[in-house]
Design brief:
The protein is α/β, with parallel strands linked by helices. It has one domain: Vaccinia Virus protein VP39 (Rossmann fold, 3-Layer(aba) Sandwich), CATH 3.40.50.150. Helix content is 39%, strand content 24%. The chain is built from ten helices and seven strands. Strands 3-2-1-4-5-7-6 form a seven-stranded mixed β-sheet, with helices on both faces. Strand 4, helix 5 and strand 5 form a beta-alpha-beta unit. The longest helix has 17 residues. The chain starts with 21 loop residues before the first helix and ends with a strand. The N terminus is likely disordered.
């Protein structure tokens, strides 16, 4: 899935194809809420740990991180002042006191080497033209032995019932649109080699599949409809204007994706969660 590319590492190196508006902000919140258990049941930080959230966007992940580790300290960084304002409101509403927020471009490495115990990056790398450069910069900001957590999705590993060639065409159009903007919507499969290539050691990656059928109504609404289908539908104008698909073909794809959220429908999507360690020396 796609988080705001106004995150703190994307301004000069990638583009955000989903747009900046209230509907997209809500989609990100729905996404985060529906995936808390799947992605974050094993995300915990020790007492006193100093954690950098790189590219916090509107704070959709920040609240979960800080709530799960109330005795850790978080610095949530983003390049967008507007996104940080939204994130601050979300953190304040949750009455969290262990989060600081700062506007910065992490590609400029604004923090000294070894500043953090941990780094958390979620749905950011997919929007970067050079994700390996960003990861190397983050590694330098980690203390020796510190860890990084990276979570990314992979639009190329999407399956559903009833199957639909038109729906796959609509998804592929978003993948191509993102590629033209300098990103990679299938980056989930690259998490392991990217972390290793950036100099992290002890890298471990685990796939996290979202499986949705009509016996899981919360996921039908929160993920199939309000996260994934809404994400594809949100790029309709750009896809049609670019000539990637006709209006009729794209609209058929969206109708078919919506059908997977109806009775008897099934939808599956795979995320990848990678953890690596900064070398001790």
């Amino acid at each position: 899935m796609s988080v705001r590319a106004d995150s703190a590492m994307t301004d000069a190196t990638g583009g955000y194809v989903h747009g900046y508006h209230e509907r997209e902000d809500q989609r990100l919140i729905d996404q985060a809420g529906s995936l808390v258990e799947l992605l974050h049941h094993d995300t915990r930080y020790a007492d006193g740990a100093y954690v950098l959230e790189a590219g916090c966007g509107v704070g959709a992940q920040t609240v979960t991180l800080a709530t799960n580790s109330p005795t850790a300290r978080f610095l949530a960084v983003d390049i967008s002042a507007a996104s940080l304002d939204a994130a601050r409101r979300r953190v304040a509403d949750a009455r969290l006191t262990n989060v600081e927020m700062r506007q910065a471009d992490l590609l400029t490495e604004p923090f000294p080497a070894g500043s953090f115990d941990h780094v958390f990056v979620c749905f950011v790398l997919e929007h970067l033209a050079q994700p390996e450069v960003a990861l190397a910069a983050l590694r330098r900001m980690l203390r020796p032995g510190g860890t990084i957590t990276v979570i990314e999705g992979d639009h190329g590993i999407t399956t559903f019932h009833p199957d639909s060639a038109a729906a796959h065409d609509a998804i592929d159009a978003l993948v191509e649109l993102q590629a033209r903007a300098g990103g990679d919507a299938t980056i989930g499969r690259r998490v392991y080699p990217l972390l290793v290539g950036a100099g992290f050691t002890g890298v471990h990656v685990s796939p996290r599949m979202v499986y949705v059928d009509d016996g899981r109504p919360a996921l039908v609404e929160g993920f199939t409809r309000n996260t994934f289908t809404a994400m594809i539908a949100g790029v309709r104008a750009e896809v049609v204007a670019s000539g990637l698909l006709s209006e009729a073909r794209f609209d058929q794809g969206i109708r078919d994706l919506e059908r997977t959220a109806a009775g008897g429908g099934v939808f599956c999507y795979t995320f990848f969660k990678g953890i690596g360690e900064a070398p001790a020396t």
